[in-house]
Amino acid sequence: MIPIMEKISFSGWPTKQTVFVIAFLLSVPLIPQAVGVGSLTCRPENGLCSVVDTIREGYSFEGRGNWPLFNVINVNWYGAIGDGITDDTQAFVDAWNDACNLESAVLLIPEGGTYSVGPLVFKGPCATDLTVEIAGTLIAPSELYSLNKSNSNSWLHFFRLNNLTVEGGGTVDGKGGRWWAQSCKKNMTNKCRDAPTALKFSSVSNLKIKDLRIFNSPQIHINFAHCYNVQVAGLQVEAPADSPNTDGIHVSATQNVLIQDSWMASGDDCISIVSGASDIHIKNVTCGPGHGISVGSLGNGFEEEHVSLVVVDGATLIGTTNGLRVKTWQGGVGLATGLVFQNVEMVNVSYPIIIDQSYCEYPYCPSENETSAVQVSHVRYRNIRGTSVTKEAVKLVCSKVSPCRNLYFEDINLVPSEGIGMSLSSCQSAQGVIAGTVIPHIDCLDSPIERHRAMPCSSMLSFL
């Protein structure tokens, strides 16, 4: 371990006055010109600070942010090479162990380096206000690697942390190609096997993720499990349309989430929201290619599963195989309720609005003789516009034993992408009402039963 005070080079040992001046310069606005103190240089026009690393002569790093000077932990100081070939895993482990024990620490992955690492578990609890600044590039091992409970079937796993920020404008490359080639979904002769999630966050509270590019994950790109108070912004996720199970963001057993101003292209759901998720807000996202934005799947294996209070407000879906989707398996139990989809543009999307309570992704699926289903209720669609590749722009396949209740459609305009004819709707066991202009006309809805006991449309989802 390298003593922290010795990690930054100065002309002579820094005095208390020098440290105070540096800290002051980092914490207040500077005049619009470069300011240098010893080997520290800040450029206020873009918020970048750089420090010369004399351990590797002539090498410097840059990262964004105003940080307490001596709490920056650079992985290069722990032996990381960053040449894209050398295994830098141990250097990251050592750097994390030191950063974890510092208040307001910044674990810096420097710009310009390409670091081959993993799988890694960044485990807490740690001191408060920890930032992982990914300014460079992280790449997964080129060869397939073993999955086990210690890394939670993930490549980079952040576990049991509070007040964590992951940011930096860098790149995370999951090297998923070899995994996809081994998938039984790509080749039915392959044995079905798990593949790692690129970034998994488990039991993390007060989490911020921003300004990152994550691509080619072997499976899910980002997975939130048992987290609370999560904010995501400025995220770019990219994988080929035929890459299996490469969801952009997967939310499970997590509450109070805001995902905004992000773009996702994948071979599965751009965003999937599954059991235990509640109070999920999605704003100003672009999705495509992919399978759309999905609540579910829920109820697989006759499980009881619940999702509530999901708001999608502002989204553009381009060329996706589904648009706004709720999907549940036959035979499950539970509830999906309080769902709002509004202000969404569809561009050449298949099934822009779909509820599928007969969802199955296996070759052999349950029969139609279901005895239970996850209840879908209080779902609002408002101001949904654009073009549908499929003739059916609205498809509501609800359970016969537990019909969809209190569906609400207002100001819908979905027309065929080829511009010929009219789009259609289809319903099974779907109860609801329409308001305003709705195209296609959804005349197949059943009238809501016991309306005096149902939630009024005007007060529906008052949590907004």
UniProtKB/TrEMBL annotation:
UniProt-listed Enzyme Commission number(s): 3.2.1.15
Molecular function as annotated in GO: polygalacturonase activity
Key words, A-Z: Cell wall, Cell wall biogenesis/degradation, Glycosidase, Hydrolase, Repeat, Secreted, Signal
Domain of life where this protein originates: Eukaryota
GO biological process: carbohydrate metabolic process; cell wall organization
Protein name in UniProt: endo-polygalacturonase
Family annotation (SUPFAM superfamilies): Pectin lyase-like
Pfam families with a match to the protein in the record: Glyco_hydro_28 (PF00295)
Subcellular location: Secreted, Cell wall
SMART domains membership: PbH1
Originating species: Ceratopteris richardii (Triangle waterfern)
Principal cellular location given in the protein's record: secreted
Active site: 291
Sequence similarity: Belongs to the glycosyl hydrolase 28 family.
Reaction(s) this enzyme catalyzes, per UniProt: (1,4-alpha-D-galacturonosyl)n+m + H2O = (1,4-alpha-D-galacturonosyl)n + (1,4-alpha-D-galacturonosyl)m
